[in-house]
Amino acid sequence: xxxxxxxxVFRKMLxxxxxxxxxxxxxxxxxxxxxxxxxxxxxxxxxxxCIRDYDEKGNDISYVGPINIPEKVVKDGRIYVVTEILxxxxxxxxxxxxxxxxxxxIKKIWGNFLVAExxxxxxxxxxxxxxxxxxxxxxxVPEKLRDxxxxxxxxxxxxxxxxxxxxxxxxxxxxxxxxPDAMFMGLEHLESVVIPESxxxxxxxxxxxxPSLKSITIPRNVTYIGDSAFKNCTGLTSxxxxxxxxxxxxxxxxxxxxxxxxxxxxxxxxENVTMIPDYAFWRMKGKIKEVVIPNSVKTIGCYAFEQxxxxxxxxxxxxxxxxxxxxxxxxxxxxxxxxxxxxxxDGAFYDNxxxxxxxPNSVRTIGRSAFYYxxxxxxxxxxxxxxxxRGAFMSNxxxxxxxxxxxxxxxxxxxxxxxxxxxLSVVFNAENCNTVIDKNKYDWDPKIYIxxxxxxxxxxxxxxxxxxxxxxxxxxxxxxKEVVIPYSVKEIGDSAFLNCRQLEYAEIENPMxxxxxxxxxxxxxxxxxxxxxxxxxxxxxxxYGCEALESVTIPKTAKKIGRVxxxxxxxxxxxxxxxxxxxVGDKAFGDCKRLESFTxxxxxxxxGAEAFAGCAAMKSLAVFAAVPPECGDEAFKGVDVSACTxxxxxxxxxxxxxxxxxxxxxxxxxxxNIVDDESAILYDVYNLQGIMVGRNxxxxxxxxxxxxxxxxxxxxxxxxxxxx
Length: 724
Description:
The chain is mainly beta. It is built from four helices and 56 strands.
């Protein structure tokens, strides 16, 4: 009788009569031993309730109808507040619940509250649910639910309503603050649900595996969305995200809230949202035509949209930071970055299909792999960019790029492997730039590999007239044929043009304070070495392996020629320099097979090991130093000392004949008179392309016979520029 009365009252209560709800609560208070509900009374004045399918005497019962869980019950004259729904003791075969009410007082719900512990079965008849529990948590839901690998795992009593396969209607009360973990997981026929504005916390797996759910709105007060909250809601086509200051949305340790919602076509970000949190829509794998980030949003978190599936992305004008891998693998084809972005973090747009990228003037930092493999054909860098990270634009299809004057740091492989476009033109305007170059060593290879910034696809290079230095390794391995270093450049860094194997001509406008180690090493087609007149040292390996280099003029200011400075310059036949050189480093001219003559001035003090080793064509060597310079091991190895004439000061002939290694020369003679009359000096003449156009001519003969133009005159006394 009571059961029938209660069922009728509950049905009416569901359609909106609050007074009937109070009456129903009273009925259950009086009937606290009803067959469907049993209570556990506690000293603190609270009670737990258990849904069961037997009476107090242990007799099985059958029941079809609604169940209302009251806010309070009375026992022995004392009122107890019902705060917990205990593990169930019921079977769907005996107890067929059609509707259920969970009151606001409930603080804790056990994950198996509708399931008989020993049977693993529950009621599949539940069709309606009113959930008013304002601040409730679900307990007894094991961590293994997070892995999402066991289909139907909720049937085993882990998700509170997972066995309720027919539940179609869920009403969440207007004062509910928390949706418990896994609370509505596995509701196969749930098509819609309204999350009220009062909600701040959506638990992990809260709506996971609800394949019929078509749309969802995240209200403005939500600050926490748990792992996999909407995972595998494959029928979901529309999500509206209104959470204004949400700080937690899943994490990479477990699973992202909207993972595999693959049929999503509409994603709307509310106009009052201030931030998109980390992992917000990670791996949604939808098919979204356009996402517009409103002007209210200031930051987009890490992995926020990774693999979401977006064709067009428009960022509002308040976004300042785009987090790491925020839009990785989204398939974006159209991108607008707004005008306030200052930081694009690592991998932010990694692996997309963006043919044109315009970096606004607000951007200062472009992180590691930020636009890696995006299919970019057109790239414009804003005039405030200071940092370009490792691989930032690697593996694209860029035809030209201008590095603005604001750039102060550029890292390895930033523009490396420009996959599809065989030619890249570079305009370098960065006034005071440094490079961050990685060195890698692999287990399978003892060599150390250095990762350059550009690669062979750079076929054209223009250096701006305000650039102050060419940083370390910047253009190593590029394929341009000529370069002009403007007057503004004071320093060429180590390995700056290393292995530019197509480089034929490099003009350096004076003054220059330094050309670094290996700066032009391996430039096998370079024909002339343009060393500034202010240089005090030719550093180690500066022109190492420049096989086409025919002549070089070392300025009078230089005091040292470094190790392997001209090693392997197999075409080098003429070296002109002043008398200030004090030291010639180890292997400095090693393997210069065509070098026929060489002159050292009166200040020469030391010649390094194998300095002239392999100079088999050497016919004459003149040394003006009164004291024989000290020689390193095998300084003249491979020189035919029986045929090569050694010319030294007449007063020092005997000293040279007695000095180690010098004494091995069989032909030793006194140096002839030094030419003081400049009109009698003989020059080799080169045009500005480094091609020899005359040999052994006086300046008067050159002026008379050569066409109008600018020429470089090279002699043992030095070099100079002549304009006719």
